[in-house]
Amino acid sequence: MHDPTNKTDACSEDPHGNPCPLRALLSRLGDKWSLLVIHTLAITPNNRSRFSELMRNIQGISQRMLTTTLRSLERDGVLTRHIFPEVPPRVEYELTPLGRSLLVPVQALITWIEGNWNQIEVARAAFDGRQKVDDGKTTSTTPLPPVH
Predict the structure, then answer these.
(1) DSSP H helical segments within 76-102, as ranges?
(2) Taking the C-alpha atoms of 117, 121, 127 and 131 in order, what is their torsion angle to the nearest 10 degrees?
(3) CATH for the 21-132 domain, from 1.10.10.10, 2.40.10.340, 3.90.550.10, 3.90.400.10
(4) How far apart are CA 78 and CA 105, in angstroms?
(5) Domain residues of the chain, as ranges?
(6) What whole-number distance in Å separates Cα of residue 12 and Cα of residue 117?
(7) How far is CA 24 from CA 12, 30, 70, 81, in A?
(8) Residues 61 and 36 sit within 8 Å (Cβ to Cβ)
(9) How far apart are CA 78 and CA 97, in angstroms?
(10) How far apart are the C-alpha atoms of 125 and 128, rounded to whole Å?
């Protein structure tokens, strides 16, 4: 739990006044593309893959988004980039030990999603069934609980 009095806490401002690094890292590692890159590398031999293989295996990702995601994950120490001096140059991405340590929570999240997918679909259908369109505005027939 975040302790606002603990100045070594990952969510404290740093000495330069930058906001919570925990929030920034959770945002980056928790986005769908980062999780899909990590998962895709996890299921490839030696947790290593070429850029083109990642593009092929991660449905819907653009070349630009994959490049951006790989750079962010490399910057955070989750993966490394290996450049082979060939013509044309060959580049492979590999999970680092830090990245491999992320596989436990990522796999737990995937297992949770798989185990609860039917319930999620039922909840979504029930929610969507309560919605109605009135003059182009979406309104809910059941009020949402207050946010605390």
Answers:
(1) 97-101
(2) 150
(3) 1.10.10.10
(4) 14
(5) 21-132
(6) 36
(7) 12, 10, 16, 22
(8) yes
(9) 8
(10) 5
Q: How confident is the model over 17-32, as pLDDT tens digits?
A: 666 767 777 767 778 8
Which tokens in the block code for residue 144? 């949402």
Both tokens assigned to 139: 């309104």
Summarised one tens digit per residue, pLDDT across range 38-84 is 999 999 988 899 999 999 999 999 999 999 999 999 999 999 999 99
Find all residues with CB under 8 Å of 95, minimum gap 6, and list them: 38, 41, 42, 47, 48, 78, 79, 102, 103
